[in-house]
User: What shape does this take?
Amino acid sequence: MELRPGLSALVTGGGAGIGRALILALAQKGIFVTVVDFSQENGKEAASLAGTEVSNFHSNLTFPPVLFIKCDVTNKNELAAAFGKHVETYGGLDICINCAGIATPVSFYTDETDGSKSWRRAIDVNLIAVIDCTRLAIQAMKARKKPGVIINVGSASGLYPMYADPIYSGSKGGVVLFTRSLALYKRQGIRINALCPEFVQTELASKMDPKFIALMGGFLPMDSVVKGAYELITDESKAGSCLWISNRRGIEYWPTPAEEDKYRLQPRTSRRKPPEVVPINIQLPQNFQKIVVHTLSHNFHSATSVVQAPLRLPLKPDHVLLKIIYAGVNASDVNFSSGRYFSGGGTDLASRLPFDAGFEAVGVVAGVGDSVKHLKVGTPAAIMTFGSYAEFTMVHSKHILPVARPDPEIVAMLTSGLTASLALEKAAQMESGKTVLVTAAAGGTGQFAVQLAKLAGNKVIATCGGKDKAELLKSLKVDRVIDYKVENIKTVLKNEFPKGVDIIYESVGGEMFDICLNALATYGRLVVIGMISQYQGEHGWRPRNYTGLCEKLLAKSQTVAGFFLVQYAHFWQHHLDKLVDLYSSGKLKVAVDPKPFFGIHSVADAVDYLHSGKSVGKVVVCVDPAFSPRQAKL
Assistant: This one.
């Protein structure tokens, strides 16, 4: 939701502390506000200040720019009346922030009363009232059939124990899980999220032990809380999310996707709907075109040629014939054409010639062997096997990855997307609250790495070369884009990130690897997924010496890890399903380079284009331009 003048918001506990700060921040955007608070003095003062801000955006109003309603949030009648007055005045409700909260004045186990004025009261205000306010807000939003955002202000004390006040901690923990359990209301246009800051300098927090506050990194700036609220309101991908804000770790989402996977009752793959069969009449030719490597060379143009091959039928019982629609271009195509991906090396490589080229493709099943029962002709499918630069290819059915549609976005999710997803999870062991650097970030795999790192709640730095690439990365919400054609990467990292970077996703190699290694923080992890700068050249791929590498790693307890996608094949389908889920829900964008390449004969030009450094996003070749069932994407 875009924060714009004319929206309306209701904030409970708006007379002081976080509630007051959020009211003033919304008012400064020209948003009509209702201040709900138990204190008439505080509430009227906050409303007066907010009213001045809102009036700067509106003139000749026939209704008040800001309302103050004195209300005990534990009184359901007063609360219902407050929501009713807001809707009556402003014609609906766009934003609801439930911020009212209190601490427990005495320990629950020493309280000799019924607790109605102490710990029961705290639960009523902190949890029961939040539930009631959420209920009323949902009703108001659904009645007007307008999208809305609800933020329930929890606390970091709802994420981990607060020993000084277990009742407060328990009630805020209830707010967090209650809110996260409402994620599915997004289907009705209502996003409900939890905001969980650590200690902010309010009347409530002033009662905490100063020594404890110091250990926590000091009081949290109110600006950080406002920034977090803005993010939850404006980010349409967030529903049922919990945003944890602290001085120690910054802004991060809790729990991480990896933690969420631990408590899911079943893996995502078991919930995946079977792909729909594409209605297509596939004519099987006697011959088809494919690309073969006939000479070992890093120069893909000179190493390969297009040949005619016979379509051999019938199929083997356990094999599938795939008609390829789109094929993906990868930097490592030149390594493959030089024979570097075959074990053994030496002069025996020449004996393998010619061999089929290409790593990845999507298409539709054109034929199945007698033993294949789970696939039908017309089933959309992806493959990640050698020989994908072809009009048809025959593969064992175990290599088929069923997909929703044979679209170029799916091609981007294969080698590029899966490398990012698996490398960050397995090799980088990515958590939330880290600083993540992605090199060559506007390329096929970099675009996924920056988004997955952001979705996990991290601060992301990205390097690229060129204005168009920088614009793409900014649209993906990268925190700091470094265009090496305009800025010096080494200087930026040294000046702006003096403590170093926690996780580095590195694909360039050479001098860039040296820069990254020197920018790695204590305990940092640098993951090497490639070294594109070293793939081509007169002498091909030559190993480099990294003098002093062991000493550097030892001094800061750092890790340098390699990642090769082939060795993680048993995770492919699961992670591909997760990427498709993120894309389908709008949480993940997929950039396909707009330069068109049609037909098998264009593959070599596409490989050269990728290595020219001009591409933005994933480079894809449309193998069969006549195939166009793309009425709608995923």
